[in-house]
């Protein structure tokens, strides 16, 4: 299991997270441009704290908290 860096999570809960990293907080997360860049796709998913951030359509993604973009 991948080790969690709790120091960075506690100091910046609104940071972006990449596929394969642990989710810093439960909530709705979204990614843009998942998959082909010529066809942007926005994927929104509820992810619980500690879960590994998923790939989208087989591609790694950069995830943002929905709260960050309100």
Mean pLDDT, rounded to whole units? 75
Largest sheet, order of strands side by side?
1-4-2-3
- Compute the separation of the termini in Å: 33 Å
Order of helices and strands: HEEEE
* General shape: globular
Structure description:
With 70 residues, the protein is mainly β. It has 1 helix and 4 strands; from the N terminus they run αββββ. It has one helix at 6-11; strands at 17-18, 27-32, 42-47, 62-65. Residues 6-11 have low confidence and may be disordered.
Chart the SSEs and their pairings:
Blueprint: H1 6-11, E1 17-18, E2 27-32, E3 42-47, E4 62-65
Antiparallel strand pairs: 1-4, 2-3, 2-4
In short:
The protein is mainly beta and 70 residues long. It contains one helix and four strands, in the order αββββ.
What are the main properties of this structure?
single chain, 70 residues, mainly beta, 4-stranded antiparallel β-sheet, 1 helix
């Amino acid at each position: 299991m991948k080790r969690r860096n709790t120091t960075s999570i506690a100091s910046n809960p609104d940071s972006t997270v990449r596929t394969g990293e642990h989710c810093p907080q439960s909530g709705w997360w979204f990614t843009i441009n998942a998959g082909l860049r010529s066809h942007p796709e926005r994927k929104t998913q509820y992810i619980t704290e500690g879960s590994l951030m998923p790939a989208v359509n087989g591609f790694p993604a950069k995830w943002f908290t929905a709260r960050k973009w309100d």
